[in-house]
Amino acid sequence: MDAALTAEVRSLLASARATLKELAEEGVEQFERRSDAAFDLHPRAEAQAALESDPARSQPARAVRTLDEVRLELGECTRCPLSEGRKQIVFGDGNPDAELMFIGEGPGEEEDLRGLPFVGRAGELLTQMIERGLEIPRSEVYICNIVKCRPPKNRTPHPDEIATCKPFLDGQIDAVRPRTIVALGRPATSLLLGRDVAISRVRGTWHEYRGIPLMPTFHPAFLLRQYTDANRSAVWEDLKAALARSRQ
Ligand code: URA
Q1: Which H or E run includes 244?
Q2: What does the pLDDT read at residue 171?
Q3: Residues of the chain with confidence (pLDDT) below 70
Q4: pLDDT value of residue 25
Q5: Ligand 1 in reach of 105 Cβ (< 6 A)
Q6: Secondary structure class of 92 (helix, strand, coil)
Q7: Which of 135, 153, 171, 227 has the most beta carbons within 10 angstroms of its beta carbon?
Q8: Is the CB of residue 111 less than 8 Å from the CB of residue 123?
Q9: What is the reported pLDDT for 20?
């Protein structure tokens, strides 16, 4: 086995071990096999094809793209049906060198109109939590969503739509390379953890995505619907932990 393949196998084993440990911590004792496109991150054939065509194995690794390059590659995207109902693409907002990155679900009506993530009601709450709670300007963090186009009537994006948009989210993460990621709500958390999760079980616990510490928490829209002391203090604890980790 050549050195690159050995390193790849080691890294796959380490992430499998980490995932099993997380599952055990969440109380999972067994799981069923499922084939859900968005959450099945490494289907066998795909992983094999990626391995075989991986240019890094024969040539120097491809340079990480900048946010502008990722945006350019996205173009006026029509790769999935969400493009049909959008007014405009909502790519992301904030500091390209942010230490803290927030990832939500998808643009709502206001975001679709303005072309910016989290500028509606849920966005106002998120902005308040960042600026009044964490005491950092919103412009210092980076904010984006797992899908860049508004789903009709704000429905949850479908697995194929999420999967189609994922390379662009990964491009954003690689470009910003934040020290900590906060996943807002179940769809974002499930995508980044590679399995469907219950947000109430995983929030407040550390995970990892692309080698970056990941803190899942409740989505601000959920918080607006269930504005209880318990939910507010849970999110507050998660955000404080994320900020502290990003400053370590
Ligand atoms: N909800 C999200 O998940 N993202 C937004 O940009 C706005 C609301």
Answers
A1: helix 229-247
A2: 98
A3: 1-62
A4: 53
A5: yes
A6: strand
A7: 171
A8: yes
A9: 60
Shared domain check, 121 and 4: no
Structural domain count of the chain: 2
3-state SS of 179-229? CEEEEECHHHHHHHHCCCCCHHHHCCCCEEECCEEEEEECCHHHHHHCCCH
Which pTM does this prediction carry?
0.80
Check which CATH number belongs to the domain holding 230 and give it.
Answer: 3.40.470.10
SS3 61: coil
| Identity of the amino acid at 152 | P
pLDDT of residue 217: 98
Q: Closest Cα to atom 7, ligand 1: which residue?
A: 118
- Residue 112 in contact with ligand 1 by CB distance below 6 A: no
Q: How far is CA 236 from the centre of its chain?
A: 19
pLDDT of residue 170: 98
119 Cα–ligand 1 center, Å: 8
Q: Is 143 helix (H, G, I), strand (E, B) or coil?
A: strand
Quote the ligand 1 centre to 93 CA distance (angstroms): 12
55 with 97, same domain: the answer is no
Q: Is the C-beta atom of 94 inside 6 A of ligand 1?
A: no
